[in-house]
Amino acid sequence: xxxxxxxxxxxxxxxxxxxxxxxxxxxxxxxxxxxxxxxxxxxxxxxxxxxxxxxxxxxxxxxxxxxxxxxxxxxxxxxxxxxxxxxxxxxxxxxxxxxxxxxxxxxxxxxxxxxxxxxxxxxxxxxxxxxxxxxxxxxxxxxxxxxxxxxxxxxxxxxxxxxxxxxxxxxxxxxxxxxxxxxxxxxxxxxxxxxxxxxxxxxxxxxxxxxxxxxxxxxxxxxxxxxxxxxxxxxxxxxxxxxxxxxxxxxxxxxxxxxxxxxxxxxxxxxxxxxxxxxxxxxxxxxxxxxxxxxxxxxxxxxxx
Amino acid sequence: xxxxxxxxxxxxxxxxxxxxxxxxxxxxxxxxxxxxxxxxxxxxxxxxxxxxxxxxxxxxxxxxxxxxxxxxxxxxxxxxxxxxxxxxxxxxxxxxxxxxxxxxxxxxxxxxxxxxxxxxxxxxxxxxxxxxxxxxxxxxxxxxxxxxxxxxxxxxxxxxxxxxxxxxxxxxxxxxxxxxxxxxxxxxxxxxxxxxxxxxxxxxxxxxxxxxxxxxxxxxxxxxxxxxxxxxxxxxxxxxxxxxxxxxxxxxxxxxxxxxxxxxxxxxxxxxxxxxxxxxxxxxxxxxxxxxxxxxxxxxxxxxx
Lengths: 305, 305
What we know:
The structure is a homodimer.
Chain A: E1 2-7, E2 21-26, E3 29-33, H1 39-45, E4 53-57, H2 63-66, H3 68-78, E5 85-89, H4 93-104, E6 112-116, E7 121-125, E8 129-135, E9 143-149, H5 158-163, H6 170-176, E10 181-182, E11 188-189, H7 191-194, E12 203-206, H8 216-219, E13 225-229, H9 237-243, H10 248-257, E14 263-266, H11 276-283, E15 289-291, E16 297-299
Parallel strand pairs in A: 3-4, 4-5, 5-6, 12-13, 13-14, 14-15
Antiparallel strand pairs in A: 1-2, 1-16, 2-3, 7-8, 8-9, 9-12, 10-11
Helix pairs in contact in A: 10-11
């Protein structure tokens, strides 16, 4: 699983930062969090394709987080995409897409499924992961998202399988995928008899625009990566609060409270040509922290246990 | 007067080309023709400000020509712009802006005046210029625009003014601006008595997306600069016709028919990593031709006569 930062600016882009968008590449699928203006061009620059299985999650309906969606869908259509795109986000998302499509008369070559989220909880579930949402604390309604992989089957020990008389081949494969199997002699073998305990999956939290809020520590608990709003530095905490944003110290405290492993600060205000000040402020509270840059890519390896 | 190419791609952006937008800098005013996604960031990169007097002309309501408008207006608001923006374009432009503003809840700090064009002719008039529109020949309704400067007063000859007894100062200035003045002795002096004949202004034509069409030669007659759709090369003339676009030869023939002075090809399809082939095809018909590139800037000096 890789995390590619396609846009890392605050509300206004800069020479080096495009508007907010984070792309998670997971197996044969893309999960995009926010879709700021210019995201299609950032994808082209990063050589990200337009045909892969894709879900898009919009944190809130401010233009800087959603205006890239229309151009992205249009370009996918121009490229003849066939596969559906799922788009999740706040109330108003469907109306926004519909009215724009109506006026701009663009014909999509694929279905767009829009899911407007009404309450905290699981917003989509796949075989190997779920995406959960929790209300953010911004100036308009919005959502913080967590991509949570389901536990994987434990480590497989071939010698144990052999001892129990499981013939190598299909039955091994099913045990490795967490299924129980029936031997020719009628004995049922469970994955736990031939392997270790289930291993946890990975968890990535993306905040969109938000102040620190109660409940975040639980929502983001033990995340491998928290990608957090850090629009203004600590000296502008009052402005951050007024505008519904966070400072580096607040983001770091949130990550620490959640016992997260890694923190990336993003949604960086255009006033910081050098984001070093943000990094310094966060590091005092949480050591494994980075400031996002456009096209920065992180690998999140599978945990061993 | 300078012409800055902010986006020069066809329907899909590329690594080096952003979506269509051409900015004419005329005295203290900006006139923008089309407003493709990403234009606000291109403006930032080109150090174009967000507070100047501005008119925007949309050629047609396809996403690649208009999707940058919302983000541009939003950023102007975030920067506290006070002065109005005038936006001209086809029917549907007002509805597009209204519905997006309603869903995205962005508060503008300045008035946006929307003018939907219904027929060929002058769409706006200022003291020193007009902008005219003519129907384009694309797959949806759209407009080709011409910025036409009004004639300037003729060259001023100080010795003639002195001979006629016009005192240096305010009266000279008024004569230089094309006004007649009354001398202290009651004699009225006209600008033609102290200067040459009125000098022509400059004319720039921007086609947006269009096939060649009848009437273009008249509309663009004697233009100093024609900025023309040249999406596909000559070997794809059938596709160009089907999709409502032009080839380099067609653009060059249009410019030649109009007796234009200079031609710039734009709206370049992503398939041309090297646009040399387009230039070659056009040059056979029209010699003073360029292929637009992002951030290319042309100076259009005032003609002497």
